[in-house]
């Protein structure tokens, strides 16, 4: 499917359906009415994946899945274990356990410098489980306002007595929120209840990196009785940050300070599933109380074999060259973009910002997530220009990003080329010039309209 065909399908999916389904049962009409709410604002998802388009969108950051590298390693791993059944046929607590999964967990825990690991079917399930199960009544959760939907959903279901957010990546805001809690809760002051801090290492929408050392300092200063624990989601740093891609916690040497780490396998590792790193007490609690484990079939052998194959490559340093290449490509993007004449015009006209690249030259690593911040709805225009030029990148809207903001999230991959990165920069520049020509207040959807006319 070409980019234009995909775009056409997305446009067609926005056609209101309720007027066409007046004879359908009330059940269907009510659902269509809800969907039409999305269609009216042109936000109905119509998942399509243009194959021949250059990937600046997927989470296969090291390109180990798309390049076939993981497939070869996976088939080798499968061949080495002819005794394994494909399915696990039960929950982990019944017949779904195996020496294979236990060994894999030991290998993963050892690689990340953790006491134990516990596998989940996905990062989503892992986050839901962590927050549903670990905070006990009376405990408190303090979370970064930009944490992933799975963390929000887990927190919503949690039994913690107090759930409070703090400003994104802001140690001062964290300190103020914690001081307030301490002031108003004797049990916290006396060290009788735990405060759980929920953060991510690299944030999935803005590519920002948590100031983890500063957070730990704030907590140590405020709670000398050590009744705090940090839970960190390393979804976007797994395989990418730190030595051999061990993650941010390892890169900062904070293994002993962090209670729970989530490493998802669906992004840098190119497969699915997740590993939760924690001590034996937390692992046992999750294993015994997490509904996603108790009431669900445990991950199948092919799922685990793919994870093991990917981890082996990480552990052996086989992905180091890809990790470096990715860094080079992202830095090249920032250099080219920020040097461009159009960039300063776009900045001063406030039609585009790329804050993730701030100080990129002095950073030890840059994240593969490069969001282009636009005005509300301009992101659709910019994204359609990129799609039109054969680069896959999608617009992101509220509620995934704050209301009245627009983003086009560029995701960089090890197998992107310098020429492709240059092409993306040129396309953005073309859009800037187009956008600068639009009179203030005019409906900023010119490209959308042009594309529609083509069909
Ligand atoms: C920060 C973060 N945590 C968790 C998840 C969920 O992981 P999974 O895709 O393995 O369910 C995602 C996926 O988008 C994520 O970005």
From TrEMBL:
| Gene Ontology molecular function terms on file | pyridoxal phosphate binding; transferase activity
What does the UniProt keyword field contain? Answer: Pyridoxal phosphate, Transferase
* Gene Ontology BP term (one): biotin biosynthetic process
State the source organism's domain of life: Eukaryota
Pfam family of the protein (one): Aminotran_1_2
Q: Which cofactor does it need?
A: pyridoxal 5'-phosphate
What Gene3D superfamilies does this protein map onto?
Aspartate Aminotransferase, domain 1, Type I PLP-dependent aspartate aminotransferase-like (Major domain)
Q: Which PANTHER family match?
A: 8-AMINO-7-OXONONANOATE SYNTHASE, CLASS II AMINOTRANSFERASE/8-AMINO-7-OXONONANOATE SYNTHASE
What family is this?
Belongs to the class-II pyridoxal-phosphate-dependent aminotransferase family. BioF subfamily.
Protein name in UniProt:
Aminotransferase class I/classII large domain-containing protein
């Amino acid at each position: 499917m070409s980019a234009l065909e995909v775009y056409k399908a997305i446009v067609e999916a926005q056609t209101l359906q309720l007027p066409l389904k007046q004879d359908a049962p009330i059940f269907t009409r009510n659902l269509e009415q809800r969907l039409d709410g999305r269609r009216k604002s042109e936000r109905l998802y119509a998942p399509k994946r243009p194959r021949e388009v250059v990937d600046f969108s997927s989470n296969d950051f090291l390109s180990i899945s798309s390049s076939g590298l993981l497939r070869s390693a996976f088939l080798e791993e499968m061949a080495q274990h002819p005794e394994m059944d494909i399915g696990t046929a039960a929950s982990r607590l019944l017949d779904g356990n195996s020496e294979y999964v236990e060994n894999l967990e030991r290998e993963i825990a050892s690689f990340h410098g953790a006491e134990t690991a516990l596998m989940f079917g996905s990062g989503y399930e892992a986050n839901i489980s962590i927050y549903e199960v670990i905070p006990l009544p009376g405990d408190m959760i303090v979370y970064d306002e930009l944490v992933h939907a799975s963390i929000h959903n887990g927190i919503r279901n949690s039994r913690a007595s107090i759930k409070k957010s703090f400003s994104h990546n802001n140690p001062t805001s964290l300190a103020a929120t914690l001081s307030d809690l301490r002031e108003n809760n004797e049990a916290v002051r006396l060290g009788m209840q735990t405060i759980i801090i929920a953060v991510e290492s690299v944030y999935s929408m803005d590519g920002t990196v948590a100031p983890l050392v500063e957070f730990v300092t704030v907590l140590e200063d405020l709670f000398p009785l050590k009744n705090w624990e940090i839970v960190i989601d390393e979804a976007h740093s797994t395989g990418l940050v730190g030595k051999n891609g061990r993650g941010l916690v390892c890169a900062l040497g904070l293994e002993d300070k962090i209670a729970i780490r989530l490493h998802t396998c669906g992004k840098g590792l190119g497969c699915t599933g997740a590993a939760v790193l924690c001590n034996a007490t937390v692992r046992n609690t999750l294993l015994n109380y997490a509904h996603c484990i108790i009431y669900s079939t445990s991950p199948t052998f092919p799922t685990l074999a793919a994870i093991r194959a990917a981890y082996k490559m990480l552990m052996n340093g086989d992905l180091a060259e890809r990790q470096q290449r990715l860094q080079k490509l992202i830095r090249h993007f920032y250099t080219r973009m920020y040097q461009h004449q159009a960039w300063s015009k776009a900045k001063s006209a406030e039609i585009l910002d790329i804050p993730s690249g701030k100080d990129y030259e002095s950073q030890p690593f840059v994240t593969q997530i490069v969001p282009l911040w636009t005005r509300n709805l301009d992101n659709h225009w910019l994204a359609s220009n990129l799609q039109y030029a054969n680069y896959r990148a999608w617009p992101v809207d509220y509620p995934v990003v704050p209301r009245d903001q627009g983003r086009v999230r560029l995701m960089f991959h090890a197998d992107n080329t310098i020429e492709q990165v240059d092409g993306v920069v040129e396309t953005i520049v073309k859009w800037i010039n187009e956008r600068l020509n639009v009179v203030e207040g005019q409906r900023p959807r010119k490209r959308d309209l042009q594309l529609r006319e083509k069909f």
